[in-house]
Amino acid sequence: MSKIRGQLPFPTRRGAQLSRDAIERRLAKHARTAVKACPTLAGKNLSPHVLRHSTAMRLLHAGVDTTVIALWLGHESVATTQIYVHADLALKERALARTAPITATPGRYQPTDTIIAFLDNL
Question: S-S: 75 plus which of 17, 80, 85, 100, CB 3.0-4.6 Å?
Answer without folding.
Answer: 80
